[in-house]
Structure formats: C-alpha cells, structure tokens
Amino acid sequence: MAPGDEWAKRMERVGREAKLSQSTLKQSTQALIRQLLFSGVMIPGEIYSANSLATHLGISNSPAREAMMALAANGLLEPVRNRGFRVVELSEHDR
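User: That's the sequence. What structure does it adopt?
Assistant: Structure tokens below.
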C-alpha cells in the first residue's frame, strides 16, 4: 500500500467531521490541520505535502501551504525541503 493510500484512509476516518469553516481558507485549514495533529490522524515523524493535503480537502495548494507554514512557525510541523512538512513529536505538556 502506498503512503498516500494510508493517508487517504485516515482522512476518510475523519470524514464529515473535517469541515472547513467560513473564516479565511488559510485559517480554517490551519485549524483543521491542528485538529488532525492532536487527534493522531497526522502521525509524528511522517511527512505530508501541502499538495496532498490540498487535494484531499478540495482546495488550492496556496492556503494549504500557508497553513502548514504557520503551524511550522508554531513548532507543530517542520519543513522538509522539496518534500513537505514533518509532524513534530509533542509531549503531553506541549499539547
């Protein structure tokens, strides 16, 4: 099974609960990614691309990339050159 297939299955489990709100697309995408991080759908150590996330959410790449960059600035993700963003392992205290 390809890594993208596993990601798609985890996204399906979130399913209809993963709705984007009426705030800016970047803000709602950022909130959704935060929810995916804290719920364990996005797994620490794995690399996710903004393009893949945008495709799964049905949005353009820009708001997905901007949201991921904002979360990287907050220490929840780390950029991996030419690959995407790696989920950072968080302690219970950090959560």
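The chain has a mean pLDDT of 84.
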